[in-house]
Write a structure and sequence with these properties.
Blueprint: H1 6-22, H2 29-52, H3 60-69, H4 72-85, H5 93-117, H6 120-125, H7 129-157, H8 163-166, H9 170-193, H10 197-203, H11 205-239, H12 246-260, H13 265-277, H14 287-290, H15 298-304, H16 307-315, H17 324-330, H18 351-366, H19 377-387, H20 394-407
Length: 446
């Protein structure tokens, strides 16, 4: 959003004006200002701590507690100082701060209005927990819905995401954390109104802070692992320039197949890593073979066919990769048992390897290389379907076809700078570099 389109600036300006309207009339000084000030300071501190943990935007319990305790304008005011002063890394910083502040002000104001309209304030004052849950739940749903609507709008106007995709999945993804934050905010509000007062309410945040810190540590560790993976892939791309970008695209195609098969998001992510890392073993293959012009000798082919085993050795110690390690080792096996390195057949081949094999072949056929042009997607898919049952798992082929029909194919730029078209499938092994595909034992095995 560095070069912000004019329509996005207009959109942000409209949301900012709406936020200013939400702040009127100002809260009663004697009734609310001390509570607004305390909650605003607490939220600002939490935002700072969250930013330091690289976990910004996670302290919604304070905002929701304000929505349960205060009038809508007062509750909206709680979000303003912390959002305006929160760290922003990307430019334009001022516009981003204004956007974030206005978005939160509108969302908290709407949540407070719904909560008050359903009688939630009286339930909180009376600590009537069963009854207090309904208005609090409605307020949390409103909070998530407003954030979803505004986030989708900024995606459509600033990031130019198509309208049919801008809001897809945003609300569903916001609900689980919203429910947790809402419950914490409700506990804070009830304790605040109890005889124990605000100090007891603040204690609710302690276990949440501990859990956020633990998750932040996990997130940092995972980020470090991903950086290691990316460095390995970049090393492969440098060594074998013909396949630059191939690993990322295979990861993308593997992820599409996994989602089409209905796998959970954890497995989808693992299979993306499997696709990205499938050729990391090429780091152990002499560069002269990877860049050789013309056909390979039988001995040279045998050396290249060792790259799955080299790759498996490299990633064997990365525990979080899980079944991706098996995919690195077995992605050149064939269903009829004629593949390598071990000649596994049928169900002996791990499911993750069967997914990556189809994704690998698909990208190889549909990418423009220095020694041949890309095949059209339709032709590639016909070839994949023709080889299904002998070379590829028919289930994985059908999943890829379904995913492509549903979402299309938008790969990255290939090594020679020509955008590669949609994906396609593999066929018979070539004898030279003129028509290679990833599961063959010919010139190269991308």
């Amino acid at each position: 959003m560095e070069a912000v389109p004019p329509r996005a600036r207009v959109y942000v300006a409209c949301v900012v004006l709406g936020a200013l309207c939400c702040l009127l009339p100002l809260p009663n000084p004697r009734a609310s200002w001390w509570a607004v000030l305390l909650l605003a300071v607490l939220y600002g501190v939490c935002e700072r701590v969250g930013a330091r943990w690289r976990f910004a935007g996670t302290f919604y319990p304070v905002l929701l507690a304000g929505a349960f305790l205060l009038s809508p304008p007062a509750a909206a005011l709680v979000a303003l100082p912390g959002a305006l002063l929160s760290p922003v890394e990307q430019r334009p910083r001022l516009l981003r701060r204004l956007w974030r502040s206005a978005q939160l002000v509108v969302a908290v104001w709407a949540a407070a209005r719904v909560h008050r309209a359903l009688g939630g304030r009286d339930a909180v004052d009376a600590a009537d927990f069963p009854y207090a849950l309904a208005p609090a739940g409605a307020a949390v749903l409103t909070f998530c819905l407003v954030l979803t609507v505004l986030d989708g709008g900024i995606l459509a106007f600033a990031e130019k995401v198509p309208a049919r995709r801008a809001w897809r999945g945003l609300f569903v993804r916001s609900l689980p954390p919203g429910v947790v934050h809402g419950l914490a905010g409700l506990m804070m509000a009830v304790l605040w109104r109890s005889r124990y007062g605000p100090v007891a309410a603040l204690l609710v945040l302690l276990p949440m802070c501990v859990s956020w810190w633990v998750f932040a540590q996990y997130h940092r560790e995972r980020t470090a692992h991903q950086a290691t993976i990316r460095a390995l892939v970049q090393a492969v791309d440098i060594k074998d320039g013909y396949t630059r970008g191939h690993s990322e695209r295979v990861g993308q195609a593997s992820m599409m197949i996994a989602r089409e098969l209905g796998m959970d998001e954890g497995r989808v992510e693992v299979l993306r890593f499997a696709g990205i890392l499938h050729d990391v073993g090429k780091l152990g293959v002499p560069t002269r073979l990877l860049r050789k012009d013309g056909p390979l000798t039988a001995e040279e082919r045998r050396v290249i066919e060792l790259h799955p085993e080299y790759g498996h050795e490299m990633v064997r110690g990365i525990s979080f990769l899980g079944e991706a390690r098996a995919a690195v080792l077995h992605h050149h096996e064939r269903l009829d048992g004629s593949g390598y390195p071990y000649g596994l057949a049928g169900a002996q081949i791990p499911e993750s390897a069967r997914v990556v094999a189809v994704a690998d072949a698909f990208d190889a056929m549909t990418s423009t290389r220095a020694y041949r042009r890309a095949r059209p997607v339709a032709v590639a898919l016909e070839e994949l379907e023709r080889c299904a049952g002998a070379q590829f798992d028919p289930v994985m082929v059908r999943a890829l076809v379904g995913a492509l029909r549903r979402y299309g194919w938008h790969p990255a730029v290939t090594a020679d700078g020509v955008p590669s078209p949609c994906p396609a499938p593999p066929h018979s092994p070539p004898s030279s570099r003129a028509g290679g595909h990833p599961n063959s034992v010919g010139r190269r095995a991308p």
